[in-house]
């Protein structure tokens, strides 16, 4: 079990620490003060994915940007990368920090974990902002025509092969990042290098994340395991018009399964809303927090 020794990227005002949670040390980058907001990154990224959004929120909120188990500067373990385990990490982290309730923001896979914990422990979350991720009630007729969009997972989900791809084929990770954001100016060369090098070091976690999805979440989806659970946490889902993996069609249809859920699709952007349009994401979060108290 290891923790990355790579230099930490700089974000003004961020303070870093590690918290022991369920047998792993999780890295946190914290900014600001006020009501707590927990932010869960997606793949292939880490806490630094929030670098453009965090400064817009830190004046009024305590932001807790978590590196999920095995990613960024959190400890890499042999196991624990399925959605339920990552969700258990989140709930245990709240306990370790002494936080009864937080506002939750998740992007990509972080939003998938967010849906899971909001279903399992709604009392722990004031509100949930889900970015670039389908909800658990997406109908099969919506999913099947869009399966081709997940073509890239075939390269990384299988043990051994997936780790080799993520560790030794950095151009693959760069392609995923560039493909997801239609504006070529979304990424600087340094940002692409940061996330590519981080993905090389977290190859075990990246491969395991997708493999556990195949082994556990896909079968659970066909069984309807999580579809039977209603969502009680006030939720806003934001998608990008040009998201190549989670198109707008996959965001629809959750309202009958949730007590308070709205969906908005932002025009002209893709699969990395916190970086492509941080001001719009911040505005959506402010409105959600104001509405839910």
Structure characterization notes:
- The protein is an alpha/beta fold and 293 residues long.
- The chain has a domain at 15-149 and 230-292: Alpha/Beta hydrolase fold, catalytic domain (Rossmann fold).
- 38% of the residues lie in helices and 18% in strands.
- The chain contains eleven helices and eight strands.
- It has an eight-stranded mixed sheet with strand order 1-2-4-3-5-6-7-8, with helices on both faces.
- Strand 3, helix 1 (54-57) and strand 4 form a beta-alpha-beta unit.
- Helix 6 runs antiparallel to helix 8 (189-201).
Mean pLDDT: 94
Helix content: 25-40%
Number of strands: 8
Instruction: List the strand order in the largest sheet.
Output: 1-2-4-3-5-6-7-8
The low-pLDDT segments are none
CATH superfamily of the domain at 15-149 and 230-292: Alpha/Beta hydrolase fold, catalytic domain
Order of helices and strands: EEEHEHEHEHHHHHHEEHH
Distance between the termini: 41 Å
CATH topology of the domain at 15-149 and 230-292: Rossmann fold
Shape: globular
- Beta content comes to 15-25%
Structural class: alpha/beta
What is the annotated CATH architecture of the domain at 15-149 and 230-292?
3-Layer(aba) Sandwich
CATH class of the domain at 15-149 and 230-292: Alpha Beta
Alpha plus pi helix count: 11
Radius of gyration: 17 Å
Biggest beta sheet attributes: 8 strands, mixed
């Amino acid at each position: 079990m290891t923790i990355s020794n790579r230099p930490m990227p700089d974000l003004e005002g961020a303070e870093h620490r590690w918290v022991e949670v369920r047998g792993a040390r999780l890295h946190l980058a914290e900014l600001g003060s006020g009501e707590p907001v927990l932010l869960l990154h997606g793949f292939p990224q880490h806490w630094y994915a929030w670098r453009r959004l965090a400064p817009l929120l830190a004046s009024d909120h305590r932001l807790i940007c978590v590196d999920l188990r095995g990613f960024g500067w959190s400890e890499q373990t042999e196991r624990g990368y399925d959605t339920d385990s990552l969700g258990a990490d989140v709930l245990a982290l709240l306990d370790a920090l002494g936080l009864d309730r937080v506002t939750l923001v998740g992007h990509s896979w972080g939003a998938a974990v967010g849906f899971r914990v909001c279903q399992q422990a709604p009392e722990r979350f004031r509100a949930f902002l889900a970015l670039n991720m389908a909800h658990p009630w997406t109908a099969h007729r919506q999913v099947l025509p869009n399966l081709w969009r997940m073509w890239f997972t075939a390269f990384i989900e299988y043990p051994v092969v997936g780790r080799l791809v993520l560790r030794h084929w950095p151009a693959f990770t760069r392609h995923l990042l560039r493909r997801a954001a239609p504006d070529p100016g979304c990424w600087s060369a340094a940002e692409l290098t940061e996330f590519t090098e981080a993905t090389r070091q977290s190859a075990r976690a990246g491969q395991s994340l997708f493999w556990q999805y195949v082994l556990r979440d896909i079968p659970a989806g066909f069984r309807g395991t999580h579809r039977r659970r209603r969502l009680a946490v006030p939720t806003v889902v934001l998608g990008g018009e040009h998201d190549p993996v989670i198109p707008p069609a996959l965001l629809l249809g959750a309202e009958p399964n949730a007590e308070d859920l709205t969906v908005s699709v932002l025009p002209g952007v893709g699969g990395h809303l916190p970086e492509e349009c941080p001001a719009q994401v911040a505005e959506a979060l402010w409105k959600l927090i104001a509405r839910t108290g």
